[in-house]
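Q: May I have one protein plus its fold?
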Amino acid sequence: MTTVLLAFLALSLLTPLLTRWWGPRVFYVIALLPAGAFAYTLTQTAVVTAGGAVTQNVPWIPTLGISFSFRVDSLAWLLALVVTGIGALVLIYCARYFSPDEPGLGRFAALLLAFAGTMYGLVTADDVIVMFMFWEITSVLSYLLIGHYTSKRESRGAALQALLVTTFGGLIMLVGVIMISVGAGTTSLAVIVAQPVTGTLGTWAILLILVGALSKSALVPFHFWLPAAMAAPTPVSAYLHAAAMVKAGIYIVARLAPGYAESDGWLPVLVTLGVWTMLVGAWRSLRQYDLKLLLAYGTVSQLGFLMIAVGFNTRDTALAGVALLLAHALYKATLFLVVGVIDHRAGTRDWRGLSGVGRSSPALAAIALIAVASMAGIPPLFGFVAKEAVFTSLIDAGVSGNAWGWIALVGTAVGSVLTVAYSIRFFWGAFGTRPKLARTALHPSPWDSLLAPAVLTVATVGLGLFASAVDPFLTPYANTVPGAGSASDPYHLALWHGFEPALFLSAIVIALGALLFRWRKRVARLQAQVPPWIDAGLGYGLTVRAVDRLAARVTHVGQRGGLPQYLGTILTVFVLALASPRQ
């Protein structure tokens, strides 16, 4: 695994030079590396499926017990496949997305490849300090990728916002990481989960780590940075904000859940904020005319759904959660790539200016329809399998006496109604024909621009039809949840479970979502009455401006006296520090 990471580093450094020779075709070349990492991860399948793990350890700072240790178990295996597989497809897509005269193309290609390598390191790292190091590198690379269009103020502002929010959460998380590693007496994630730190120390450490996870995965109140990040090129949105970076918070919650899901505050925080995020994101998605923003708010909503599933403390919700994670990565990355094709061919992402795109490009419409149907939870697609699994697991949790199961079920059901509504809105907006508009003229596009979304769509269909074959690869993780071995009838992924409550609930959700879309004008009037101060992004802006003003005033007061004042200030602080009592 260290060899894979070093290869990512070396090729990332060479990519700007290679881009000078090959232009956009360089993406075909560098895509071979994540594709190779994908194949390498597949070779570990037998060990992972048997419940084992592939490990590697390289000492780094022995005195602190820190090492470059990596461990691929069922969860890391799944995330590594997502990161490398979708990463390779997005890089191939970039070869047709960017023109040879794209400014900073070599830099962009290098950063995107480096990000793929960093995410691979994050999900496979077993040392919690090393994992955090990769965690923060993703924030820096995300900042650079979102701000690719350096001449645009919107792009620079969105990049800075994403950096500040995720880094703020990361610094709080660092405190929790240090606390839990000290309490456990080790930096090994596997040991920290297998031998949980209990008591007040463990509770506070986990809550601090959750702050970092919530900010990274754009949950309320940190959700506003993700829609703003749509200023980035579409391949960045498809990879970072659908399949990779935003999954980092979901991953760390799933990683810690087997050991800490029963700790104080875990379930209330994740269920409450998860439901809130799912509803807020879906509600805001129904207001959007920009197809990319519609998907962005939908992603926020789905991240809330994912956080509930992976954070709930039962074996069946753990299985449903990782299935939903995979389904979401497939359909949401597909839809972002579809929007990129529409934007390039039509010259706009605002669906109010689009008409007849579905008739002009039936292949693109078919790909989008399958992805949208999976997002809405319609059979026989993998999104339906995952959503039904979540519903079933929450129903079982509620019936067994867990009140949070009913709260989560109601919240996710209502959120899923909104999901169906904005899914229909997306497809109707992107591909519908509007009588008052002339058919949108589409620029020609090479056939292989649809290669990446088509492959992801085939995976969505295949995994749905053969969901029972996927189950053995995901159950090893679910079986690590405490109490999993005592389940008399554990849930298994399958396309058909019979006429069960979750199936009827899914049917009701789809019907209500379709009605909500039909009543979209009434919904729009209701949304117009929501006051603007509800948006957390306004709070971010006010906070940043307040900090700027405070910094300016402090600088004005502290740096206007010249050298004598500077020396006096230094001396005063020095004396006060020496005079302060020592414990």
